[in-house]
Specification:
about 170 residues; alpha/beta; five-stranded mixed beta sheet
Length: about 170
């Protein structure tokens, strides 16, 4: 199974593509789609959409795993990230790629085995699981790879069935 994990944002969208076969992971690609801070927001969304469409066409993932949004104290930022997330979901849906959502707690539990793990612990375990020399940079790409690993661990399990019915 080939899965693309996405860490949504509007300045930086992290992505990570992994292959999961016979309980083994292989990193296929990772990186970030970036937009310039001085670019009008609507143009930033177009750039994210176009770059992600090209990435999906190139990688041909069987599933897209994306962080489930939660609203923190800065609602303007959350709304902007939600809009960027919307174009991400749209790009996947137009290609009939199923979209799965996971909370940060679920990713930590899946990758580290502890839902309250620190970011560095998740990054290090991601590096180990993918047999990489260094932790992927930027952090958004490392987070996206962890998201993909989370989906691989939970797909086909009872938790995946439960999460997707919600």
């Amino acid at each position: 199974m080939t899965v693309i994990g996405i860490d949504p944002g509007y300045a930086i969208v992290g992505y990570g593509v992994v292959e999961y076969k016979s309980n083994h992971f292989r990193m296929l690609d990772f990186g970030a789609i970036t937009t310039d801070a001085h670019t009008p927001f609507n143009i930033r969304l177009i750039h994210i959409y176009n770059e992600l469409c090209a990435l999906l066409e190139r990688c041909k993932p069987e599933a897209l795993a994306v962080e489930k949004l939660f609203f923190n104290t800065n609602q303007k930022t959350a709304i902007d990230v939600a809009q960027a997330r919307g174009v991400i979901v749209l790009a996947a849906q137009q290609r009939n790629i199923p979209v799965f959502e996971y909370t940060p707690l679920q990713v930590k539990q899946s990758v580290v085995g502890y839902g309250r793990a620190e970011k560095k612990q998740v990054q290090e375990m991601t590096r180990i699981m993918l047999n990489l020399q260094k932790i992927p940079k930027p952090d958004d790409a490392a987070d996206a790879l962890a998201m993909a690993i989370c989906h691989c661990h939970t797909s086909g399990s009872a938790i995946s069935t439960y999460l997707n019915k919600r």
